[in-house]
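Sample entry follows:

_____
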Amino acid sequence: MTNKLKYAILTCAGFFTINHAFSQALDSTVYLQVKELQETVRKAYAPDKRTKLFAFTKTDVAKNDYLIETTEPAAKTAFEQQFKNIPATVAINLLPEQNLGNKLIGIVHLSVGNMRTKPDNAAEMASQVLMGTQVDLLQKDHGEYRIRTPEGYIAWLPTSSVTAMTKEEAAQWNSQPKIIYTAEFGKSLSEPHAQSQRVSDLVYGDILVLTGEKNNYFEVSYPDKRKAYIKKEEALSLKKWVDSRNPTADNLISSAKSMLGLPYLWGGTSVKGVDCSGFTKTAYFMNGYVIPRDASQQVLAGESVDILDAEGHFDPEKALKNLKPADLLFFAAGKNTNPNARVTHVALYIGNGTFIHAAGSVRINSMLKDAANYDDFQTRTVVAAKRYLGSNDPQIQKVQNNPYYSIK
């Protein structure tokens, strides 16, 4: 090979290397521009991914091709208005997805539907939703619906747990009288007698359509058209139940104590098992309220109660003076190493320094050092207290005022 040919080949190779590196740098710069804009819009319109979405689902940096999905029309508009001068292709998928057709409403038809963070049975459990609860259907993937619950929580639920409906079908369901199951656990039966076959299990809070009465049984209908019978002593008219709710501190504490000994279950919000915030959420639901799902969301609702000293440390004397029964106590496991640590736990204050919470199981502990049931770790990590009773915060909503519930 001549020296001239070698030089030409090396020159071309060098040019290709430089050009490829320049192209990669350009792609990376464009990606950073797209990412920065996505993050700016996300913070403004969807700061909490548990309730609002604005996230990448595809990022092809080499081709400058991106896909974002969102639940927020305003976020889509804001991004598109600011994106015009960025040399990339960005598609925005606004949920609910069009391929769901006109069946965008779901009614849960299992006693408890298990919601997960991804459309995968092996994924982390995020929450639960009770039978008869209306949800929004946003997306379908791998036999799962991405749903939104009455408190706004977004996660994945198996399609086998929910009946998809059109607006007209849901309106028909909502127009009918309902019963709510008020025993802790039980079952519905195929005939109005105890020896008949089980149709399904039931837990406190399950809601079904009332179609008639026979002897000592309610005749009911499921969202998926199954028929069954429930003992009258185990259920109430949904309207009577709502009208009878009296959310006093004593009633909230009584509801909380009714769950003593229940096992801790990550993501649990039913009497089958509860996590810490699922426990407080369930206690408030038993008293006719829909509240935020997670502890780090619950701490943002209600009225603040002063329980900290000037340096931000828990002050037991101030807490005993200012706390009232049924207030919520919030804890941050990382508080001792990070003063701004995220809230990770919640408890319901009973009074006299004691609180009830789900930690291993639902149990009662004290913040007083000389008490036999003193909980040192939780007491050291208290970061806030909130009062829900008497608050006008729209995040603390009566069941009858929540649009996902139809009280008939």
Remarks:
- The domain at 99-173 is CATH 2.30.30.40 (SH3 type barrels.).
